[in-house]
Amino acid sequence: YSDLKPVREDCGTVWLAVLEAVDGALLDRGVLRKALPRSYEQYVQALGSHLAIKNGRLLHTFNAAYDQIHIGGHYRGLLREPESVKGAFSLARRIIETLSGRRVL
Questions:
Q1: Phi and psi for 80 in degrees, rounded to 5?
Q2: Spatial distance between the Cα atoms of 13 and 61, rounded to a whole number of angstroms
Q3: Cα(93)–Cα(105) distance, rounded to whole angstroms?
Q4: pLDDT grade for 1, boundaries at 50, 70 and 90
Q5: What Cα–Cα distance (Å) separates residue 48 from each residue in 21, 54, 64, 70, 74?
Q6: How far apart are CA 58 and CA 24, in angstroms?
Q7: Which residues are within 8 A (CB) of 39 and not within 5 positions of it... i.e. 6 or more apart?
Q8: Which residues contact 31 (CB under 8 A, 6 or more apart)?
Q9: Which tens digit of pLDDT belongs to each residue from 62-100?
Q10: What residues contact residue 72 under an 8 Å CB cut-off, 6+ apart?
């Protein structure tokens, strides 16, 4: 954790995994591939209208993951402690498990 480059790269990879999980869930709900979200705001809107209707925690967790993993970890390199990285990655795990219905290792 003293070298931020691998931590930032891992945060970028984990954020992409979250977006892939959301994309997969949207495709399962009938959203066309060409209509998938392309920006954070569009992802929030799609989650609210297609996936988080009965699960407001999903949208809250997505927003927290965006702030911690994508902005804090990937762009700004603010995650410097192992516990903060683990906490941020647990948000991603929660989103992926909720959307896939399967436990992530």
A1: -115, -10
A2: 17
A3: 9
A4: low
A5: 15, 9, 15, 20, 25
A6: 15
A7: none
A8: 46, 50
A9: 999 999 999 999 999 999 999 999 999 999 999 999 999
A10: 11, 78, 79, 88
Of 78, 67, 71, 65, give the one whose Cα is nearest residue 4: 78
Please count the residues of the chain: 105
Q: Coil, helix or strand for 17?
A: helix
* Confidence (pLDDT) at 56: 83
Query: What tokens appear for 74 in the block?
Result: 């990937």
> Environment class of residue 24 by beta-carbon count within 10 Å: exposed (0-12), middle (13-18) or buried (19+)?
middle
